[in-house]
Every structure is written in C-alpha cells, then in structure tokens.
Amino acid sequence: xxxxxxxxxxxxxxxxxxTFTFLSITVAFFLFGLLxxxxxxxxxxxxxxxxxxxxxxxxMSMIQPLPFRYLAQIQxxxxxxxxxxxxxxGGVYQDPKNFFANMAVDPEGILRIYPEFVVDGDDxxxxxxxxxxxxxxxxxxxxxxxxxxxxxxxxxxxxxxxxGKPDTFEFEVVGIYRGATPxxxxxxxxxxxxxxxxRTGDPGTVGWYAVEVEDPARADEVAHAIDRQFANSPAETKxxxxxxxxxxxxxxxxxxxxxxxxxAAIVFFxxxxxxxxxxxxxxxxxTSELGVLKTVGFTDLxxxxxxxxxxxxxxxxxxxxxxxxxxxxxxxxxxAVETFLPIFYVPGRSLALGLGLAVLLGLASGGxxxxxxxxxxxxxALRKR
Amino acid sequence: MSDxxxxxxxxxxxxxxxxxxxxxxxxxxxxxGRGEFLALMGPSGSGKTTLLNLIGGLDxxxxxxxxxxxxxxxxxxxxxxxxxxARHVGFVFQFYNLLPVLTAARNIELxxxxxxxxxxxxxxxxxxxxxxxxLADRAxxxxxxLSGGQxxxxxxxxxxxxxxxxxxxxxxTGDLDRQTAGEILDLIAELNRRYEKTVIxxxxxxxAAERARRVLHMDKGMLVEAQAA
Lengths: 385, 229
Ligand SMILES: Nc1ncnc2c1ncn2[C@@H]1O[C@H](COP(=O)(O)OP(=O)(O)OP(=O)(O)O)[C@@H](O)[C@H]1O
Ligand SMILES: [Mg+2]
Known about the structure:
The structure holds two protein chains of two kinds.
Chain A: H1 4-11, H2 15-41, E1 53-58, E2 66-67, H3 70-75, E3 80-88, E4 102-105, H4 107-113, E5 117-118, H5 121-129, E6 133-137, H6 138-144, E7 151-154, E8 169-179, E9 189-192, H7 193-200, E10 205-206, E11 208-213, H8 219-229, E12 237-241, H9 242-252, H10 256-284, H11 287-295, H12 300-337, H13 348-375, H14 378-383
Parallel strand pairs in A: 4-9, 6-8
Antiparallel strand pairs in A: 1-11, 1-12, 2-10, 3-4, 3-11, 5-8, 6-9, 7-8
Helix pairs in contact in A: 1-12, 2-10, 2-12, 2-13, 10-12, 10-13, 12-13
Chain B: E1 6-17, E2 20-32, E3 37-41, H1 48-55, E4 63-68, E5 71-72, H2 78-88, E6 89-92, H3 104-109, H4 119-132, H5 148-160, E7 166-170, H6 178-193, E8 198-202, H7 206-211, E9 214-219, E10 222-225
Parallel strand pairs in B: 3-8, 3-9, 6-7, 7-8
Antiparallel strand pairs in B: 1-2, 1-4, 4-5, 9-10
Bound molecules: adenosine-5'-triphosphate and magnesium ion.
Magnesium ion (MG) binds next to helix 1 of chain B.
C-alpha cells in the first residue's frame, strides 16, 4: 500500500511516545493471552468431548464411594455404549507439595473411555499387562524426570495396605500418554484398580463411573435413566455430562470466566485511553500538515483513513507482538503452574479474538482524531502555524 | 463571456467571529488570462490569502462566483474540489509546508499518490520535478537538512509535479534572503514562461512584483490596478 511509508514515518516521528504506547499495548495483549490461558485452565469455554461422556457420582458428594455392582447395571442402561470406573487414590510422592492426580482404574477401560489420551502401541500393551504398572501423563513425567521402567514410590493417604508390607505403593512406569489436543490434562497418574484391591482388600466400591453414551443429544435422558435405577437405594447417584461437572466446578470457585473477562475489559479500557491520547496528540500537533495534504488534493475521507490507518497500524503491530510473546511464554509458564492449572495454553480461538481486538482498539483509539481530521477546514489548518 | 482562465465575479467573503463580522472581500472582480503572471500586493489583512484560497478551491465565497477554466468552483462539493485541486492547481507557501517526516522525494510524490500512476512512473515524475528545480542530488534529504531556499524548491516541485495549469504562490519568498528570493523568482518566472503555467503570486516585495507581467493592489477587499512604479 502506497500510504504505508507515510503512516510509518508519522508513527516514528515521536519515537519515545510511540514506543511507550507500543509497549503498553504489547503488555495489554500479553496480559490478555495470559488471562485467556488461565481461563482455559479453569475449563471455561472448553468444549470437551465431555458432551458425549457422563460421570456418575454419589449423590451426597463426589468423595463418597459407589458400589462396584453398579457397573453392570449402568452398562445395561439403554443408550449407554460403555462404562468404566475410577477411584481417587490421593497418594503422595515424597512430599504433599508434589501434588498430582492419581487414580486407580480399569486399564483397558480408561483407554477406551478417554481416546484423547494417546498411548503408543508398546506402552499400551505393557500398561494393560503389568499389574503394578502406572500410566502417566507426559507433563508429569517431565516434572519429576520419570522414564519408562522407573519405579516410583507413592505414599497412600487414606487407603491402608492390609498385607503388612511397607506402607508405600511402588509403581513401575510402563506407559506415558499425551493429549490428542492441548486441552487434555497430562499431569495424571493411573494404576490398576486390581492392584489396589490386592493391597487393601476389596471393599466392593469404586469412586465414580465414567459413561459413554451412544447419542450425545440424548445424554440428559440417559443420565436420568441411570440415576432412576439407584433411587431410594443407600447409595443414590448423580449423573451429568463431564462438561456440566466442569462448569459447576468453575462456578464454585466464583464465576472465574466473568472475573477474568472483567479484568481483560479494564485492561483494554486503560489501553484505549493511552492509545487514544497518543493519536489525539499526534493529530493535534499535525494540524497544518493535514491541511497541506488536503490542499494538494487528499479528500477528507482519505485524510480520515490515514489517521485511522496509523492508529490501526500501531495497535495491530503492538498487539501481534504481545500475542506472539505470550504464545512463546505460556508453554514455559505452564511448567510452573501445572500443579494448580494442569491445562494452561492460549487457544487459537483466543489468538484470533486478540487480533480482532487489536483492530478494534486501533479503530476506537483513532476514531475521534480521525473524525476531527476529516472535519478540519483547510483554511483554518493553514492559518495555524 | 471572456476566455479568461480565472474568473472572479462579485465575490464577497465575510468571516463572523462571534457577534463580530469581518467583511474581507467586498464585491471583488478579477480575470486572469491563460499564461499570465500576476502579482497581488497589498497591506497585511487586506484579503490576499483569502482571495488566493478561493481561486484555489480551498474555501468558498460567501456570495459571488469563482470559475477556473469555465468550471464553477462555488458549486463543487468538497470531494470534487479535492480531486480538482489534485489535477489543476499547485500551491506554494511562504513557509514551504513540507512534511518533516518525509524526504524531499516523498514530499514531492504526495500529490501523485492520488493518481493511478505506478510506483515507477511516480518516481520518474518526481525525478523530473527535482531536476527542474535543480535539486536532483537532494532527493533523499529531509526538510530539516535543507536550506530555506532548497525547501522552497521542493515546495515548488511538489506544486508542479502533477503538471497543473494554475500555480498559486502565497509570499513564496517572504521567508528568504534577497539572493535566494531572486533564484526562487527566476524559477517561478521560468515556469510561467517556458512551461506556460498561469501564476498568481501574493507578495509584499516590490522587487518580486516586478517579475510579474501584471500587478494588482488589494486594499480593503477591493482590487486596484497598480500605478506604474
Ligand atoms: N478564518 C478566519 N476567521 C476570521 N477572520 C479571518 C479568517 N481568515 C481571515 N480572516 C481575516 O480576514 C482578513 C484578511 O485575511 P488574509 O489572510 O486574507 O489577509 P492577507 O492579505 O493575506 O494578509 P497577510 O499579508 O498578513 O498575509 C484579516 O483581517 C483576517 O483577520
Ligand atoms: Mg496572507
């Protein structure tokens, strides 16, 4: 575009002012990316495969166990394609600070119900066939430097071995999974439920059930059907989609999404004032030059477009830098925060939104100055010297 | 109907500042023929710049008619006027009015950006204009790096790069020393003589006015033919 050199030179005329404004916008978009990553970490706005999946938990609270015999009954419910069970182990590695999720599961069931856990062929086989094996997430392995074949001692917290052997459970790392998409938690450890039974005796209970339905559109119906079977029994159930569970969790810790959105909005408002002020000054100190442009034949609209273009150029270039930096920084930060936010990344959707906001910021900050530039009378502008 | 290039008939211009009315032009009549070199003199505040702005389509009269090459400027929309200025008028100012952030070449190129010319064609025109004003070796200089006389040459190059019919100069030598002023006037005279530009030049300098073929005096919003010096 032939006006680009003019736009660029105009921005560069006050290098310090432009630099400060540029940095403010860059920081704002960096912050925006960070907020979006946190938002993603809280599961806000993620469309999990979770519509297809139900969780059946104890009606009173998620930590109360459910009878193992429910498995067959749930499997028999019309509309259910597959069901498996999971049990929270709550074990500790060396120090409670080293928290990560660890669960006893059915080794084949977990692979089938969570196809988004990608496990290579060899690992898959070893995992299914090793009684004391553990399947761990890629990030968890990286965090503690665990490799295939390592033996890791996990201290139980509420499960107590009955066999009198040392308290500790020792698992062999036999498989490492990675998420098919970035929104998959790669910080968990799974081991065989059977091994747990061996060590602690069979209480005939599991933590909860994960259910795959045949038709996601009828998920609610199936959930009701499951709960109805166990109504008026000592262990009544509550079944809902995985997504609904995520959402209610998010709601419990305050409406995180709304708070984060509010912070982002405030940041943008402040940045709008800064960028708007820069553009207003830029136009004010250039009154006679704008008059000259009009004199040589630039139309009012072209002059307006030039001012708007300058604002958009500033906002977009700074926005792109901010978004690029946060895209680079988040994977590095992800390691530091993975204990409380196992899922932490900037979704592509948020980057696109960020770009859109950058354009919008440019238009909004340049709007009033551009309007004034368009209205500027040549004669008045030339008289001001 | 005469075949004058510029026709100003019964033009009034009134500025109102609050309750105050300033009658700047009071029924002014003027005809400028094609190829003329006209100097406008007169005391400060007599309305010279105001008249020049009307002829250049930068402003509109309160009443009356301004026509250039048969075209009634008072009826054109701002947008039409902008396009018209881009093709038919070149302006030269006392303080050059160059964009400080652009090089000499880019300043001269500005009016060409509004045409459909390619980058290469634009550069050719810019080079020719620079050559004509004798600044071929200063293309990459910024206004800050040029002397006043050189800046004014760039200003003139910008005014003529589109090959306009009409060249309007408002005190083009007002900010220059005698010697440099003389050179600039030579250049303007040459544009008039060799390139047949119609020139209207406002000036306070009798020496400058001498270069013109006709001199008009403006006083209290009226024009009077100059007495022989
Ligand atoms: N936009 C305006 N608003 C109010 N008054 C104006 C405006 N423009 C010009 N005037 C007045 O009109 C009169 C003529 O101004 P103009 O600039 O045409 O004078 P001039 O002959 O060019 O003077 P100079 O030689 O000082 O440049 C002056 O009294 C000036 O104050
Ligand atoms: Mg004047």
